Amino acid sequence: MKLHITSETGRLQGVIVHTPGPEISLVDPETKDELLFDDIIFEEDARREHLDMLELFRTVMPDDAPILELTDLARETMQDADIRRSFAEQLSQELYFENLHPVLEDLKQLDADHLLRFTIEGRIHERGRFRLHPTPNLIFTRDLAAVVGDHIILPNAAKRARVREFLLMELIARHHPLFASVREKTISIPKGQSLEGGDVLVVSEKVVLVGMSERTTFSGLIHVAEQLFATGVEQVLAVDIPKKRSSMHLDTIFTFADDDECVVFPQAITETEHNVVEIYSSGNNGVQVQTHVSLKQALEQVLGKPLHFIRCGGERHTDQLREQWTDGANLFCLAPGVVVGYERNTKTFEELDKHGYRVMDQQSFLGEFQGVDDAGRKRFDPEKEGKVAIMFEGHELCRGRGGARCMTLPVLRS
After folding, report:
1. Residue 374 — very low, low, confident or very high, per pLDDT cuts 50/70/90?
2. Does the pTM of the predicted model rise above 0.90?
3. Which of 68, 98, 141, 261 is most buried, most CB within 10 Å of its CB?
4. Contact 155, 146 (CB under 8 A)
5. The domain 12-413: what is its CATH number?
């Protein structure tokens, strides 16, 4: 499969996810803050909710389009003993603050399953003397990379709690056959700089949005922008967003629902001015910049068409705050005008309904479109069905502070 992404809305044809596992149950009230969680999560319900979300994906995606589990890709990569030993050494070097040196030789001797378990759960053996914290944020695969055109950005984690996740993604990208088409087309970031995939939105072949958030440094953004210009991207719109937990990435306050429609958190997007800088290459003169009054004005100018901004949470300020906190703006587009999000964000779905979306819960959607059988159900055709907004249950998943877009790493769209 050739990896290729040139929009946020093209029909999804390949995606990497991580369904919650035992690492979720290893988070406790004393470690949750250090592990970047606002609450502890019930693993069984979170897993069920995630699998239900993936069932929606399968119903919209083409029959042969893969949903890839990150752990499966990592396990396949680790079948090579030399790669395992090299990865163990990298863990020891990059996690210098954990002092893995005393157990490095033990790590080098682990098979693929046990080394992967140690990386994710922090345990060598069930009753082993050496343990690390788990990596519960692995569920948010979006942050670990970003496919832009036929290139891939391999960023650096902004927080120590997530370093192992980014190392796993780098391992896969460097060695798994899935990434063969982008292996020589990698955009990396120097040590000391950070950028996370939740801050990267691919608007078109020529335009990329990058959020300047609490997780993405200015130097990381500029370094990536310069490399993107060499791939054919013409403009990078840098969006300065509040450096707060509630808006840790750009996609927590802004996502695309269709080619010309976006769901936005008003307080940080439509009610904020002079927070967008257009960065572009001017040949021998290097990088040039231009400021814009608003994100809407900037996008409309570079795309040459009007855009419609749909309010997360509807009209009331309190509802906007509540639903942005539960990822109402973090919708994931499965095809043009076909989005999924948490059902608890009722005001956001009411706004989508006002803009012509057919709002359906997951049971109704699957009942109507999941395959063809004697009951007369039909396959979903995004070109025939029009705009659809699908609600799925996420009462446990949303405790981790991430929605459907956060939990997906698209690698191929039509």
Report:
1. low
2. yes
3. 141
4. yes
5. 3.75.10.10
